[in-house]
Design a protein that fits this description.
Blueprint (H helix, E strand, L loop, with lengths): L1 E2 L1 E2 L5 E7 L23 E2 L29 E6 L6 E7 L17 H5 L3 E5 L4 H5 L3 H6 L8 H16 L5 E11 L1 H11 L9 E5 L10 E2 H14 L5 H6 L2 H11 L7 E2 L8 H6 L8 E6 L6 H4 L6 H12 L3 H7 L5 H31 L4 E6 L13 E3 L5 E4 L17 H5 L12 H20 L22 E5 L4 E4 L2 H15 L3
Length: 510
């Protein structure tokens, strides 16, 4: 039994429900285990601890009660009626090293007001969620290691399948969604036999497992784990498990938090995710996915060089060698004034847009379900006067107030900028002075997401919204451009060819 809270809106919220046993002590680096039943009524009126993590991204705003390895909890927001209502399970972003399910931008109350049971899920991060090691593989019944964070998500989906009817949810209509690492997680769960048959739909915002942050061979993961143990000054799994969580976190950050990759473990991933999608073995469900128009800054291509044609061509030569001329052809800059935009487009594609494109492309070819693609371009407005002068955060938010000059107005939609709009949570973000245009975009984007969750097609029945057609496999396709005036545009031939070219370069490791 759990006892939640009835919000002022009438929505019922249940926070901090355990979906797996605390992964501590001997359960550190094990697949999630069943929850020990409790007696009586468990209060579910507050968020439990967030996963172990360093303060990496300044725009994250946790409402959790502290931080702990004991973090495997989920939160449910449900309409007041009996349902059955379709279900949304949302996975947070943060590069698999940060984030938690309590962040206001992921809050499910607004989605519940639209007739959806919304769920947010904690999962293990960094060394706690993705360490692979030969000793861990030897002790596991499936003879592999790593992927604990992904296994946490799969366990949460199993929990939702078994229990969501109690909250008025329809267990046959579960859509998973997420942004950045959360979007990568969505594509990963679609590829796993542990989860793929639980799903009715999927939404991906900027990122997929078919990219730079993909799964590595188990041996490679185990080698990284061995190197980590050596850097920690221990020689056995027992010694690693005996380390306190804070010490383990500190050592992992010095070792390099992004060195703990998902693994092709033969269990969560039976084979390389690229092969799974290419052969159509992923979940055969409708997919809605896209990315923002300024996912990464142009300096990721140019470094500290001034944005001019000469420096840009030199950067392309470093990145692509013999293909540098073709790179310039697909990301052209007629003069110095055009370089910043061209390098921004390339940086965003290399960072995360290409992997999202790859996901859309291959799923549209190997799934027998429709795929819908978007391009999000609404810049955030100016910051509120209360923020004073501030420094933009790495994930598009704000890191801290400073005495520096006020940052220039945003020219594009940076990585993660769309989350509050899609989830209907603009008002919860007090950093920005939201305008009527922002709320228009939010209503539009959320309406498309809501209808997709309910029907598998994003276009609402009302004529207030443009019809959103599905992707045409292997051809220039219609794309929903989400902005103040949202509209469908057919993908230009040049853009289609650009992604075909970039696909060849990325798949060869350039």
């Amino acid at each position: 039994m759990v006892e939640g809270v009835r919000e002022k809106s009438g929505i019922r919220s249940f926070k901090g429900i355990p979906f797996a046993a605390p992964p501590v002590g001997k359960l550190r680096w094990k697949a999630p285990q069943p929850v020990k039943p409790w007696a009586g009524i468990r209060k579910a009126g507050h968020f439990e601890a967030k996963p172990m993590q360093a303060n990496v991204f300044g725009d994250m705003n946790s409402r959790s009660e502290g931080m702990s390895e004991d973090c495997l909890y989920l939160n449910v927001w449900a309409p007041a009626g009996k349902g059955p209502y379709p279900v949304l399970v949302y996975f947070y972003g943060g590069g698999f090293i940060a984030g938690d399910a309590s962040e206001p931008r992921y809050d499910g109350e607004s989605m519940a007001q639209h007739g959806i049971v919304a769920v947010t899920v904690n999962y293990r991060l960094g060394v706690f969620g993705f360490l692979a090691h030969a000793e861990l593989s030897a002790e596991a019944p499936y003879k592999a290691s790593g992927n604990y964070g992904l296994l946490d998500q799969a366990a949460a989906l199993q929990w939702v399948k078994k229990n969501i009817n109690v909250f008025g949810g329809d267990a046959a209509k579960i859509t998973i969604a997420g942004e950045s690492a959360g979007s990568i997680s969505v594509s990963a769960q679609m590829a796993s036999p542990l989860s793929k048959n639980l799903l009715a739909g999927a939404i991906g915002e900027s990122g997929s497992i078919l990219g730079a942050l993909s799964a590595v061979p188990l041996q490679q993961g185990e080698d990284a784990g061995k190197q980590f143990a050596q850097s920690a000054g221990v020689t056995s799994l027992t010694a690693l498990r005996n380390m306190c969580a804070d010490s383990l976190l500190n050592v992992s950050m010095k070792f390099g938090p992004y060195r703990f990759s998902p693994t092709i473990d033969g269990y969560f991933f039976p084979e390389n995710p690229f092969a799974i999608y290419a052969s159509g073995k992923q979940a055969q469900v409708p997919l809605l996915a896209g990315w923002n128009n300024e996912e990464m800054n142009y300096r990721m291509v140019l470094g500290n060089e001034k944005p001019n044609v000469a420096a840009y061509k030199q950067a392309l030569q470093r990145l692509y060698g013999a293909e540098a001329d073709n790179a310039f052809l697909h990301y052209p800059a007629a003069d110095d004034a055009a370089v910043e935009a061209a390098a921004t487009a390339l940086a965003g594609d290399r960072f995360i847009a290409w992997s999202t494109w790859k996901w859309v492309d291959v799923h549209s070819k190997t799934a027998q379900k429709p795929v819908y693609r978007y391009y999000y371009a609404k810049p955030r407005p100016a910051m509120t006067p209360e923020m004073g002068n501030a420094t933009p955060g790495l994930a598009g938010g704000v890191q801290k107030a400073t005495a520096a000059a006020k940052p220039p107005a945003a020219t594009g939609a940076v990585h993660s900028a769309e989350i509050e709009y899609a989830m209907g949570n603009l008002a919860s973000n007090k950093v920005y002075a939201w305008t009527a245009d922002d709320y228009t975009v939010s209503r539009t984007m959320q309406a498309y997401f809501v209808n997709f969750i309910k029907t598998g097609n994003p276009t609402p029945a009302t004529s207030n919204y443009a019809v959103w057609p599905a992707v045409v496999p292997g051809k220039p396709s219609p794309v929903m451009h989400l902005n103040v005036q949202s509209q469908v545009k057919t993908e230009p031939e040049a853009l289609f060819l650009r992604y075909q070219w970039l696909d060849k370069q990325q798949m060869t490791g350039k």
